[in-house]
């Protein structure tokens, strides 16, 4: 007969843990949070210390009733929710909702759901961490204030009810919008570089690039030429001359393996390699963490906790993986000492990196029990972890410099001498077929040929899901548990669309960002958002009071709210028919200005005011000239911008409607480049 109740979040986690505990334990699932702020009101008393008003989530009433009945019959109640802030908050809400006493309530946490880890946690139970709870509560209240105060303004400005603003979400959208503006404003610049083929005294030939032009001992400039003619004039004069070697260094270079995954790097890897969204990655990781049936009644968690920003690894796991490497690879692949990776400042020290719970379970050995996406994720986690404790990869590298008058040339070569961890994970750096010939300072190198290559500067790349998460992490915006939610919300609100793996802001997303930057410049500031995240960390570390953070934030937020006057709209135009301020509307992804009475009808069903006009005041879309000839009419083709990006269009449009993708332009430039070489 069970005398102790164990509460976890999910049924899958309950099934796994139940296998590791005796008959005296009953394991039930809360299905996540059981209490939250109300959905139809702010739910925070701004005048009384930001006191939250929590209510039972309607869908959890039946679950809570079952938990209460079981708790009343139990001697002890173990709260075994996840070990991060969110998990701590779920445990605290359960304690409050079930009216559990301190004496009866115990808190257990574990980084992996294996028999050994779970039994150890239950043998050493602790108590709830109120500092973690307060950090999560402060974040929830901050986000509630921002969402409930800013979102209605968006509804009024745009006439759309499902818009939302968020403390972190809106800043992430700003990054995407500003990158898009950089790309639109970018003006490409053409330039040319030169290189020469030289012959050493040994008869070996190799290429050296012109790196710098020295006009004085203190003044050097990069060797980039504005015209092909100027570049050719320089290098053609060098044919038949000799460059003098000024430096030659041959060295060995070791490249350390990557650290094990943390949440952000796992999401980046799965997005880049397997095209999995951050949300999907976290779903698959959750299932592997909570436990998988491995046949013959065996069930266990395959990876450690997956919401982490720490690369720390337990000593026992390091010892196990070193034993595995020793048994599975030649002796050179095991380094003399383990690799230890630096944990970034502010990372949760109690957490570990994401790793397999049992390194002896290779991906192939469990493949039959996993779904395709589960297998891909486990394979990535397992390989990355094992590789992190393998020997470094080793390269031999050559670097040579030579000069003629004011011209300085450089050449480099690289060879992979030992693959090390690359045998299991990662790709080698670009390598050559051989090293440079042995050179001495003062050797003469005969110039036998030259080449000129044209280049064009490229705009910064659009964000992908992977690079956006990397940017959020580097700017310390959000935390591991929030990255997937941020990206998902941007899609859900139709602020961002994904095409070809790249994130494009919609017209709605750009308009929302523009308005929020005008109305709330501080809240939309990346530095301000970063500082708030740092303050939340201090609350968890018991170095700051959570209500103090809310007071400081709300003071700044109120100042900006007070500046948002009634006349602030998303348009400076007035309806010529009735004088109302025009608002931006969206239909099938297209934006236009309309009278706010556009959708209101009279008794006969006619619009009260049907005035609309194309969206004005926006920057004209840039048109670029090309030297591609239209095959239909002989006119020049232009690069234009459309709803789905840039494309080639005839300059005689609309008389000639010939249009093509940019592939034709790239192919033509590639062919010209080949003709121009040498």
Structure description:
- The chain starts with a strand and ends with a helix.
- The protein is 35% helix and 22% strand.
- The chain has six domains: 4-128, 3-Layer(aba) Sandwich (Rossmann fold), CATH 3.40.50.140; 137-186 and 461-563, Orthogonal Bundle (Topoisomerase I, domain 2); 190-256 and 393-456, Topoisomerase I, domain 3, CATH 2.70.20; 263-388, Topoisomerase I, domain 4 (Orthogonal Bundle); 571-618, no CATH class; 624-676, Bacterial Topoisomerase I, domain 1 (2-Layer Sandwich).
- Strands 9-10-16-15-12-17 form a six-stranded antiparallel barrel. Strands 2-1-7-8 form a four-stranded parallel β-sheet, sandwiched between helices. Strands 23-24-25-26 form a four-stranded antiparallel β-sheet, with helices on one face.
- α8 crosses α12 (372-388) and α9 (278-290) crosses α12 (372-388).
- β24 and β25 form a beta hairpin.
- It has 678 residues and is α+β, with helices and mostly antiparallel strands.
- Residues 616-620 and 672-678 have low confidence and may be disordered.
- It contains 18 helices and 26 strands.
Topology of this protein?
Layout (H helix, E strand, L loop, with lengths): L3 E5 L2 H10 L4 E5 L5 E2 L7 E2 L5 E2 L2 E2 L4 H13 L2 E4 L5 H13 L7 E3 L7 H9 L6 H29 L10 H17 L4 E10 L5 E12 L2 E4 L5 H9 L5 E14 L7 H12 L3 H13 L1 E2 L5 E2 L14 H14 L34 H4 L5 H17 L4 E12 L2 E12 L25 E13 L8 H10 L8 H10 L3 E4 L2 E4 L1 H13 L6 H15 L5 H18 L19 E5 L2 E5 L17 E3 L9 E6 L6 E7 L2 E6 L8 E2 L2 H14 L2
């Amino acid at each position: 007969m069970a005398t102790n109740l164990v509460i976890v979040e999910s049924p899958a986690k309950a099934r796994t843990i139940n296998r590791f505990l005796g008959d005296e334990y009953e394991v039930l699932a809360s299905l996540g949070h059981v209490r939250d702020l109300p959905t139809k009101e702010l739910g925070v008393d701004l005048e009384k210390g930001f006191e939250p008003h929590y209510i039972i989530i309607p869908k959890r009433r039946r679950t809570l009733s079952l938990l209460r009945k079981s708790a009343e019959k139990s001697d002890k109640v173990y709260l075994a929710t996840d070990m991060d802030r969110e998990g701590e908050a779920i445990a605290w809400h359960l304690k409050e909702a079930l009216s559990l006493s301190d004496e009866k309530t115990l808190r257990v946490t574990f980084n992996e759901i294996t028999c050994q880890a779970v039994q150890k946690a239950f043998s050493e139970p602790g108590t709830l961490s109120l500092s973690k709870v307060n950090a999560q509560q402060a974040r929830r209240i901050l986000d509630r204030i921002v969402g409930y105060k800013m979102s209605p303004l968006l509804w009024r400005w745009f006439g759309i009810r499902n818009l939302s603003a968020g403390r972190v979400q809106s800043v992430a959208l700003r990054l995407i919008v500003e990158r898009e503006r950089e790309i639109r404003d970018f003006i490409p610049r053409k330039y040319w570089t030169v290189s020469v083929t030289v012959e050493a005294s040994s008869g070996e030939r190799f290429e050296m690039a012109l790196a710098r032009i020295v006009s004085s001992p203190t003044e050097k400039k990069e060797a980039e030429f504005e015209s092909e003619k100027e570049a050719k004039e320089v290098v053609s004069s060098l044919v038949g001359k000799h460059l003098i070697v000024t430096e030659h260094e041959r060295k060995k270079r070791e490249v350390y393996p990557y650290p094990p995954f943390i949440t952000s790097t796992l999401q980046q890897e799965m997005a880049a390699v397997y095209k999995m969204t951050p949300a999907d990655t976290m779903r698959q990781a959750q299932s592997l963490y909570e436990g998988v049936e491995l046949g013959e009644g065996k069930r266990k968690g395959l990876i450690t906790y997956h919401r982490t920003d720490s690369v720390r690894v337990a000593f026992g796991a390091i010892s196990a993986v070193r034993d595995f490497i020793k048994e599975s690879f030649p002796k050179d692949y095991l380094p003399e000492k383990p690799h230890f990776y630096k944990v970034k400042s502010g990372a949760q020290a109690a957490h570990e990196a994401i790793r397999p719970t049992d390194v002896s379970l290779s991906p192939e050995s469990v493949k039959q029990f996993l779904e395709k996406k589960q297998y891909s994720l486990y394979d990535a986690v397992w390989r990355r972890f094992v590789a992190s404790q393998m020997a470094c990869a080793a390269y031999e590298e050559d670097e040579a410099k030579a000069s003629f008058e004011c011209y300085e040339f450089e050449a480099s070569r690289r060879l992979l001498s030992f693959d090390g961890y690359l045998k299991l994970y990662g790709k080698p750096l670009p390598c050559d077929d051989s090293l440079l010939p042995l050179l001495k300072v003062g050797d003469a190198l005969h110039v036998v040929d030259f080449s000129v290559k044209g280049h064009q500067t490229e705009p910064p790349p659009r964000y992908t899901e992977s690079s956006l998460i990397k940017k959020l992490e580097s700017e310390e915006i959000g935390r591991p548990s929030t990255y997937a939610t941020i990206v998902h919300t941007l899609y859900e609100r139709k602020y961002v669309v994904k095409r070809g793996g790249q994130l494009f802001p919609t017209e709605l997303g750009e308009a929302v960002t523009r308005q929020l930057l005008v109305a709330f410049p501080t809240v939309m500031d990346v530095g301000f958002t970063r500082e708030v995240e740092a303050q939340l960390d201090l609350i968890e570390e018991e170095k700051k009071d959570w209500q103090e953070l809310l007071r400081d934030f709300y003071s700044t937020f109120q100042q900006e709210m007070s500046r948002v006057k009634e006349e602030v709209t998303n348009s400076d135009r007035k309806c010529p028919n009735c004088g109302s301020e025009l608002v931006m509307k969206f239909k099938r992804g297209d934006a236009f200005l309309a009278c706010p009475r556009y959708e209101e009808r009279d008794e006969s069903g006619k619009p009260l005011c049907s005035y609309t006009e194309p969206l004005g005041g926006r920057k004209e879309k840039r048109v670029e000239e090309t030297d591609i000839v239209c095959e239909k009419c002989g006119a020049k083709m232009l690069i234009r911008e459309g709803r789905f990006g840039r494309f080639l269009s005839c300059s005689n449009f609309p008389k000639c409607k010939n249009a093509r993708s940019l592939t034709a332009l790239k192919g033509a430039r590639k062919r010209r480049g080949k003709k121009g070489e040498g």
